[in-house]
Structure formats: C-alpha cells, structure tokens
Amino acid sequence: MQVLLDLIEKIFLSVTKNKKLILSCFEDKALEPLNCDIQEKILNVTVKNPLCLRYPPPVSYQKFFLRCLYDCVERFGSECSDDLAKAYTDILLVQDAENTGYHSYKIDEKCTVTLQENSCFVAKSTTGLQTWEAAKYLSEWCIRNKSYFQNKTILELGSGIGLLGIIILKFCDPAKYIFSDKSDEVIKLLSSNIKINFKNHDNIVTEQRQLMWADISDEEAKVISPDVILGTDIVFDIDTIGSLVQALNILMVKKGTCAYIASTIRNPETNHKFLEQLGRSGLSYQTVESHQKAVFIYDESYTLMLYKIFKEYK
Questions:
Q1: Do you find a cis peptide bond into 268, omega within 30 degrees of 0?
Q2: Which SUPFAM superfamilies match (predicted)?
Q3: CATH superfamily of 120-311
Q4: What is the pLDDT of residues 132-148, one digit of tens each?
C-alpha cells in the first residue's frame, strides 16, 4: 500500500491532471475497500500533507482531486469519512485564484522542487509561467549525466519558471547557471522560485538575464561565454526558429561549446524546419538516445526528443 500512497502523493503535489491515472490509483485492489482509514491515509499524503499546507496546489486542482476520491468512495459503496467530507466541502467554498498555485516535484527521498506556476496555456502574454513536458525530460537526463555540467558555465534559453536550472544547481554542481527569458513576468516568478528552493544563496552562483534571441550581439555572447547551452520546449513557433538558430550560432563563442535542446513534438513540420535551419547555419546535431522516464509523471500522449547541437571544427 505504501508504494501506492507514495504515487498518489507524487501525483497530487505535482498537480498531475491525468484523471485516468488518478482513478486507477484509487481503484487499485491495494486500497480496497477504500474505507475511512484508507481515506485518511490518502488525505494525509495530499491535502493534509505539510508541503501542501505550506505551498498549496491550485484550488481548482484540489477540488478536482477530492471529487475524484469522493466519487470512488461512492462507487465502492464505502462510507465517506468525516475528514473527507469536511475537506471537500471546505475547498468548494474557496474561490479559485486564476489557475495559480504551487507544483511540487519529488525528485528523490531528499529533494523536492517546489515551483509557483500558472496552469493557463498562455498567461500574461507568455507561455513561460508553467512547467512543460520537455523541461521534465531534460531535467531527468541531466540528473543521469551530471558530469556534463560539473564546473561549467551554463546558459538556459527560455528558462521559464526554473525547473531545469534548479535541478541542475541541486544535482550537477555547475560553476555558474544563467537563467534567461524574454518576459519580465517570467523572470520575476523565476526569481521567487529560486528563493523557495535555495535557503542559502551563498552556495550557488546564478544570474537571471532578460535575453531576446534576435538581439544577442557578439559582445554579449563573449560576456556570457557559456560552456553549455540548454533549452526546453523553445521550438514551437516557426516564426522564431530563425532567431533561435542565430542565437545558438552566436553564443557558441568557445570551441567545444554545445547545446542540448529538448522538445515536445506537437507539430513535426516545426521540428523539421528547426533541424533544417541548423544545417543551413552550419550547425550540426545528434539525436540523443531516449532514457527511461522514472523521476516525473509525464503526459504520454506526446513524443519527446532531445538534440545535441554543436559546431564542427576542421
């Protein structure tokens, strides 16, 4: 049962909206007959979880989750516990706060990354206020390949709210991590998320920089001088592919600098144009072999790809 409770905790804290997955957990034989005692155990790892109380998930999600649990209790024909009834009625009285809330990603027994996010696809004229699938995918790959980032200066393009950078700072020991995004709103939320996850800022070297890909100059690239460039879900708009590829070319000022770009393939044509544009600009790429997805819960309806991009020197 504990393994299942751990999964339910992970689903809830990360604000996973896969109803089929949630119901499959509640309907698992290990939880039969979903009596009051088991309901209490579920509440203790979700809405009563100390992390939830300190950094609550969006109200709309808590309503959705408790409704799923309540419906399953009814289907089992079990008695609804007083605590479940109270938790559900209490949350129904709370007004939703524009889809904002905290998402907490349990990486291992010692590390949980908590981020304030906005679950709207586009909020405040940007898509950068939530964590996308490719950020999870590249984060997990980086944890498995720490040596690529140790003692390196890393620049992330389109950092969003910070999952990838925070994980690399916690697990990979870079010399410096430079978060960048074009949106003031994103940078503001990113800075807040860094403070949530690092109580002692003296142990990490970071910079938050507003960066417009089309405006990056040779001089700015020399100042940044990255060893590794990272990006997740930044290849989604055909109109920005040219400026992204141009930025990658300019930023590879040091011999040996490479980029790792992870993408959710929503439109194969957009991805094809990106790879085509890399070739035209003199950049080479390799498809990085896919890895087992074990740390995060993913939306399996999407294909995720990771590319290593570099300049070849003769």
A1: no
A2: S-adenosyl-L-methionine-dependent methyltransferases
A3: Vaccinia Virus protein VP39 (3.40.50.150)
A4: 899 999 999 999 999 99
